[in-house]
Amino acid sequence: MTHFRAAERSIALLIVLAALGLLLGWLLGQAGFGMAAGLLLWAALQLRQLLRLQRWLASRRMHAPEAEGAWQPIFDSLERRRKADRRRRRRLLIALEAFRDAARALPDGIIAIDDSDTIHWFNKSAKRLLGLRYPADVGNHLTHLVRSPRFVQWLGEGPLDDPLIDLPSPGDERVRLLCRVIGYRPGFRMLIVRDVSNLMRLEQIRRDFVANVSHELRTPLTVINGYMEALEPEELGEFGGLFVQMRQQSRRMAHIVEDLLTLSRLEAQSMPIADQVAMRPLLGTILRDAQALSAGRHQIELCVSTELDLLGSGKDLHSAFSNLVVNAVRYTPDGGQIRLLWEMREQEACFSVCDTGPGIPSQHLPRLTERFYRVSNSRSRDSGGTGLGLAIVKHVLNSHGARLGIESRVGEGSCFRCLFPKKCLHDRSATGTSESALA
């Protein structure tokens, strides 16, 4: 209602000024000029109010100045909006400051960088873990401050999924870091740095313990197995059946010890071996071993559709591939089929072991490569498995930059695929090396 009254007063003022101008102009014999003068006076008053509004908006004063006519509701409305915006801005600043305080208090280092690796912000933990200085290092390139070749290469590849593990802190070589990059807006990334020194120290203690215990168990188990091999069950009479079970379990223990030692060796291996591994001879050996283990109970087929070889450790690759094939032979019922394939799948070389066994329920697939994890304890023990085969496969593939893919359906069988990227492949035809020389 107030707005309408203000508008009415402005219209009334316009009419009054126009009428006065017209009257004065008529008395002077220039009615048109008089009316125009009245209108110009009204326009000058409105311009004065407009200039007052402009000065007020340019200032930082919250309260609006007094206005006339229809301008007063406009001033009042803008004053309310400015106050609301000021309150909203204050709330946002409080929330932003709370967020920054929380980020500063985090034990993990957080660094905000753009696509050119320029630092925009970092918290106190980043100063401690990476030796950054505030505000001197804001605006500098992160790779100029953290000059580890591994870190520079990893950050340049734009890793959003794979973390960088075991990076030494620039300020203290004893502090080991885990780095991860997260993209949080277009053109910007967040580097999260965590101190994992204690975790790595505990992991090293665990590896040393497993390796030492395995070495200590190997000697007595070798002696026990030697004596048991020298004895015949028939010589023990009624205890012959018990003796056979003891021999089977001691052999199983020896296999477990050997697998644990293999895992310890793979974990302690710092740099992967990059020898040229001829695949045809390797796969031929694995095929013969599988046929000997199967003893004619399965149909085993080898299909090689690429002449590419691998760069890596022939011993470790043989161990990984053999574990997959042995598992297929052990768990595939008599009369089943086992296919071994060496082929190219898109941009990767793939060694596959597919069987027509009972299959694996989907809920078990993510945990198959864990140590001693078993889908069925009774079936694994009956088949002589140690529960470490797939863990060895995973370690070997990781050391070669490869990955393991598993597909399985209950009642239809399973397929295990070792996928090797381009950097692991060697083309014999490009070097002119003969297959016999590689063998």
Question: Can you describe this structure?
Answer:
Helices cover 53% and strands 19% of the residues. It contains 14 helices and 13 strands. The chain has a five-stranded antiparallel sheet, sandwiched between helices. Helix 7 (197-230) packs antiparallel against helix 8 (240-268) and helix 8 (240-268) runs parallel beside helix 12. The longest helix has 35 residues, at 71-105. The radius of gyration is 40 Å and the shape is elongated.
Structure keywords:
14 helices; Helix Hairpins; 53% helix; alpha+beta; disordered C terminus; five-stranded antiparallel β-sheet; 4 domains; Beta-Lactamase; 13 strands
Brief summary of the model shown:
The chain is 53% helix and 19% strand. The chain has 439 residues and is α+β, with helices and mostly antiparallel strands.
